[in-house]
Design a protein that fits this description.
This protein is α/β, with parallel strands linked by helices. It is built from nine helices and nine strands. About 30% of the residues lie in helices and about 15% in strands. It is globular, with a radius of gyration of 20 Å. Bound molecules: zinc ion. Zinc ion (ZN) binds next to loops.
Length: about 270
């Protein structure tokens, strides 16, 4: 069970201090290989989870060690990088070599079923709304005949950090480019002082948005409690994020075309379902 909490920052997880998720194992501070959803999910499905950025280690050696970990995760002997060749794609390996049922439920339209991410999945669904992990639980099925692999891409932690029962009319209003940006429109700029530092962010709005992401994790912890009850007792669970999010640091908001430590810093936790 591979759950990706989209856009979730490592420190938002720490502030939320989710108790159910803590029962899975200690949360680690790791680093995403990419700063936005599509390349990050491709990398995750290659089997390369967020990395620990170790010093004095060759990348190839790190990848090798990462794949050996799948012996414990999958409960199989002798797992190594060469076993996933040539596709280097977990769903392909799990389905065709290990006989898994492979399923995905995603919240972000850039991961929709027509993208290349949807390869060797038995079922793959873009959820009707972007922020309802609980609705995914209703669709989980398990069989005694075949082991299952699930990818869940969860959107409550993605902008606008809205819980499923929140009226969209009450979502934070981000007008113009984004609302938190001020004077981005060239016609608003003062032509007399083109190099004058301008106020790009409304700090109160950014603090509110970050608080909403923390609140989303607090809410999701209750959904994880339900998820853990629904899973077979020998399920290995991985919970992480595809990238972080910027809330005004160094005049950045969001993720994607952002090169900042906080967009690569992500939480990572794994273990047998508690
Ligand atoms: Zn994302």
């Amino acid at each position: 069970m591979f759950v990706v909490l989209d856009s979730l920052r490592y420190d938002s997880w720490l502030d939320a201090a989710p108790e159910t998720l803590a029962a899975l194992g200690p949360v680690e501070r790791r680093w995403s290989y990419a700063s936005w959803t599509a390349p990050s999910h491709y990398n995750l499905l290659m089997g390369l989870l967020p990395h620990s950025s170790p010093h004095e280690v060759y990348a190839s050696e790190y990848y090798k060690q990462d794949f050996i970990r799948y012996s414990e995760r999958l409960g199989i002997e002798g797992m190594e990088f060469s076993k996933v060749l040539p596709s280097i794609f977990l769903p392909t390996y799990l389905k065709h070599r290990l006989g898994y049922s492979t399923r995905a439920m995603v919240s972000m339209p850039v991961l929709n079923a027509h993208t290349v991410i949807n390869r060797d999945f038995d079922s793959y669904e873009l959820m009707p709304v972007h922020n309802d992990m609980a609705a995914m639980l209703d669709k989980l099925t398990f069989s005694d005949e075949r082991p299952s692999f699930y990818l869940l891409n969860v959107g409550e932690t993605h902008y606008p950090y809205a819980l499923p029962d929140e009226d969209p009319a009450r979502w934070p209003r981000i007008s113009g480019v984004h609302g938190v940006f001020k004077h981005l429109d060239p016609q608003d700029a003062d032509p007399g002082s083109p190099t004058e530092p301008r106020e790009f962010f409304d700090q109160a709005t950014l603090a509110e948005l970050r608080g909403r992401q923390v609140r989303a994790v607090e809410y999701l912890d209750g959904v994880f409690a339900r998820l853990f009850e629904a899973l077979p007792s020998d399920t290995w669970v991985i919970v992480t994020s595809d990238h972080g999010e910027l809330f005004g640091e160094d005049r950045y908001f969001g993720h994607g075309p952002v090169n900042h430590e906080k967009v690569f810093e992500v939480p990572f936790v794994e273990g047998m379902v508690p």
